[in-house]
Amino acid sequence: MINNKQLETLNKCLISTNDDLKEYIISFCKQNGYEILERKKYLFGYLKDSKLNIMLTAHYDVVHEKKVDSEVFYDNKHQVFWSPNGLGADDRTGIFIILNQIETQKPRFLLFTDEEEKGGLGGEEFCKDFTKKIDTNLFIALDRRGHKNFVTYDDDNQEVEKLIKSYGFEKEHGSFTDICRLMEEFDISGVNLSVGYENNHTFTETLRINNMEYTMSALDVLLKDEALNTKYVFTKKKYEPYIYQTREYGYNKDGIYRIWNSATQKFDIKQDIAKNIDKQKETNDIIKQEVDVKDQEKPAIEFNSPNNCAKFDIPKHKARDIGSCEDCLFALECKDNFTALNDFCIESGISKDEAYGNGNCSFCINIHDCYPGETCVMNDMFIIESFNLNNCEKCNINCSDKKYVDNKVNKEETIH
């Protein structure tokens, strides 16, 4: 049970502006013997004589603007923090847990980042400043929603997974946090632990103290575990590519696992075109015939025009009218004018698959139906992906995933 002093510290973390919180972190760490390096997008703490060679990390930026007069409320009966202006427990809770921890145990490295919500820019700046110069045994991030769960992202080190599970945490799927960059840069494994906040990036965000306390207690014991004397090497996950609705998943030519991205063309588009070129030619002929029949009394179509569809050499609006944009793999400049289909991310204005592939969902402050959700309990893929492969029809488990999909179908909404 956290005491009143700790509650005051937590409240300080939740209500402070970024600048005020940075000053508070610097002062608190220095009082506990840490040297602090202050940079524009991160604070780095170092304790030379520490025998606990791990790094704790969290980010102090939030999606809701923190003003000097921010209101935060605590429900003592239910032990829940909330705010009508957006709580920002993601990830001020992680900041609090780290500050609380260094009073009792002294990890060698601390990293507090800014602009994680904008794509991990603070972590990226840290990696550029300390290229290959950080030698630690494990990264532990405290930036995960929920209770008693953890994620390791692209790290497949089974020893780390076994260690964290022994403290009562269950592995889940996650999208992104700063350790994703740290693990790749320094070749060291990492784990992100849940800290008790729910509904992050919304105005209904809450922080459940009991769930936060569980992680605090487990972390306190974990940091005394002799297993942390071992260096855990980052082990890159290997994914088997598979075909899903004409879009390939797997490692692209840059070694990144993601959906083929028509905006950046990071996936090997030439190989994809080569496999489908005959089918595309055949479809082109059919499309042109349909258009000619439909518009036989109108002026002839001008082929090889810059105003034509990138996939089919016909005017863009005609391609949209016959639905060709639904499965087009090209980078479509015409998508800006495309309103015939309901296939765009509300936040970014690009296709939902592109928005997800670019990582937009991880820092979008709105809750949209286009977000693919968590992973299926039966298959290592997203719920919607599993549903579109008809796995739910074969699955006899009455799980929340099935209920989620049923709700989508009952609403007669398109599943992407």
Word description of this protein:
The chain has 416 residues and is of the alpha/beta class. Among the domains are: 4-229, 3-Layer(aba) Sandwich (Aminopeptidase); 372-416, no CATH class. It is built from 13 helices and 15 strands. The protein has an eight-stranded mixed sheet with strand order 1-2-6-3-7-10-8-9, sandwiched between helices. Residues 242-277, 293-303, 336-342 and 406-416 have low confidence and may be disordered.
Which key features would you list for this structure?
416 residues, alpha/beta, Aminopeptidase, eight-stranded mixed beta sheet, four-stranded antiparallel beta sheet, globular
List the helices and strands and how they pair.
Layout: H1 4-15, H2 18-31, E1 35-39, E2 42-46, E3 52-59, E4 73-75, E5 80-82, H3 89-101, E6 107-113, H4 121-129, E7 139-144, E8 149-151, H5 158-165, E9 170-171, H6 179-186, E10 190-194, E11 197-198, E12 206-208, H7 209-222, E13 242-244, E14 247-251, E15 257-259, H8 269-294, H9 316-321, H10 352-357, H11 383-388, H12 391-394, H13 400-410
Parallel strand pairs: 3-6, 3-7, 7-10, 8-9
Antiparallel strand pairs: 1-2, 2-6, 4-5, 5-12, 8-10, 11-12, 13-14, 14-15
Helix pairs in contact: 1-3
Mean pLDDT: 76
Protein structure class: alpha/beta
- Over the alpha carbons, how many angstroms does the gyration radius reach? 25 Å
CATH class of the domain at 4-229: Alpha Beta
Overall spatial form: globular
Q: What is the number of beta strands?
A: 15
Number of helical regions = 13
Helix content: 25-40%
Order of helices and strands: HHEEEEEHEHEEHEHEEEHEEEHHHHHH
Q: How many strands, which pairing sense, and closed or not: the largest β-sheet?
A: 8 strands, mixed
Q: Provide the CATH superfamily of the domain at 4-229.
A: Zn peptidases
* Order of strands in the sheet with most strands: 1-2-6-3-7-10-8-9
In the predicted model, the low-confidence regions spanning at least 5 consecutive residues are 242-277, 293-303, 336-342, 406-416
State which percent range the strand residues make up: 15-25%
CATH topology of the domain at 4-229: Aminopeptidase
Distance between the termini: 44 Å
Architecture of the domain at 4-229, CATH level 2?
3-Layer(aba) Sandwich
